[in-house]
Design goal:
This protein is an alpha+beta fold. The protein is about 50% helix and about 15% strand. The protein has two domains: about 30 residues; about 110 residues, Glutaredoxin (3-Layer(aba) Sandwich). The longest helix has 27 residues. The N and C termini lie far apart (about 70 Å). The relative contact order is 0.16.
């Protein structure tokens, strides 16, 4: 009887350690994507919509949608202002707050702080939210929202 309990305990501990290892590996692989800086002239007088990824390394939605963000970057780089705000920890949140302020998005940041797993499209001219997509893995959802913002700004969609 003791042998069965001992074997069961060893199996359970092994499973727990294995699951922790997998979780840690997923966490490490979910770093915030990096995007290029937005030029000062574009910040002062934006001509392009903002597409903002609200990210946190611990966010499971961010993990399952990171391939969609890569598609957004590939399809829209140079045509929209791509921004990543990272809420992984206090230091990242503070740096993201500073970047949002630099971009004229301080009130947006205050409203959406901590909303990891969301991609938000803002009008470049007004910096008002035109679409907010949380957790979709369908690129078509993002394409529709971003193309609508480009159309509203009278910019080409493709």
């Amino acid at each position: 009887m003791r042998t069965v309990i001992k074997k069961t305990l060893i199996v359970l501990v092994s499973l727990g350690v294995g699951l922790l290892g997998i979780g840690y590996a997923l966490y490490l692989g979910n770093r915030a994507p990096t995007v290029g800086p937005i030029p000062a002239a574009e910040i002062a007088a934006p001509t392009r919509p903002y597409v903002v990824k609200l990210h946190a390394q611990w966010c499971s939605v961010c993990l399952v949608t990171k391939d969609v963000w890569a598609q957004i970057e590939q399809a829209y780089a140079g045509r929209v202002n791509l921004v990543v705000l990272d809420f992984t920890n206090q230091a990242n949140t503070d740096a993201s707050r500073s970047e949002a302020k630099r971009l004229g998005l301080a009130s947006f940041f205050d409203e959406y702080e901590g909303a990891a797993g969301t991609v938000v499209v803002l009008s470049g001219a007004t910096r008002q939210v035109t679409a907010s997509i949380q957790g979709s893995r369908d690129f078509a959802d993002y394409r529709a929202a971003i193309d609508a913002a480009l159309t509203a700004a009278k910019l080409p969609t493709h």
